[in-house]
Design a protein that fits this description.
Blueprint lengths: L1 H34 L12 H20 L7 H18 L22 E4 L2 E5 L2 H10 L8 E8 L2 H5 L2 E8 L8 E8 L11 E10 L4 H6 L7 E4 L3 E10 L7 E2 L11
Parallel strand pairs: 2-3, 4-9, 5-7
Antiparallel strand pairs: 1-2, 3-4, 3-6, 4-5, 6-8
Amino acid sequence: MESTQQTNRRHKSLWGLAQGAVLLGMGLYLVSLVLGDDYWLLLNPRFRWVSATAAFVLLVVGTASLIRPPANAKFSHLIGFLVLFALAGVQHHDPANEAFKDPMSPLRAENPEPRVSIDGTEYIKLNTAELFLIAEQHKDRIPLKYAVRGIVVRSPELDRRNRFALLRVHMFCCLADAVAVGFLVPYDKVGTLQTGQWVRAAGTLRPETPSKADQQSIHLENIAFTAINENYALEPDHVDPVEAPEFQFIFEFRDKEPYAY
């Protein structure tokens, strides 16, 4: 009997040490994620401080478990921790995310020049999410002139009506909940544009309701949700090709100038 009890204690001690090692590993993983450039693949950068706090707790608990293994440690607990660790690693290194990798830091919603002058006319620079908010909540600002950059999306339905969709991807938390946000843009030369091309459209908002066929035909690869403004289109004075920004996703939008653009 005593031998069996000793064996059980030894097993629990081993499970406790293993749990401590896994917790320590999870803490180190979080530290590398917080300090690295891939954090935005999993979470919105504004949650970085939460992850840093969790990393600190895991490092402390993991170290304590290694120094003094918990007496109530169970093999099932260890398996649970290992599964969580493995899932986090798979999500982080998912090959489907490679297309979205960018070495630049996402904490960069800067707009040193909040307005741009085109052919003598001044336009307010902002992103599609910010223009969407204006169209929904700030009717007094609708007559102003805006410059918005984004990705062109064409479809046969839109081509027949000389329109294209101008989209930017807004990430609320991570890629799993990313939404492509944008507007229809009436444009007689839509045939000169390509889906996936980056352009800057400068003009004003005008009332227009997209049809269901329009909405169903608009989507971006790898992005599950698309939101096209249902009340306004962007009537352009100018549509010009531009280089894609160093960081293509929207992580914030502002309610007033200077906008995040």
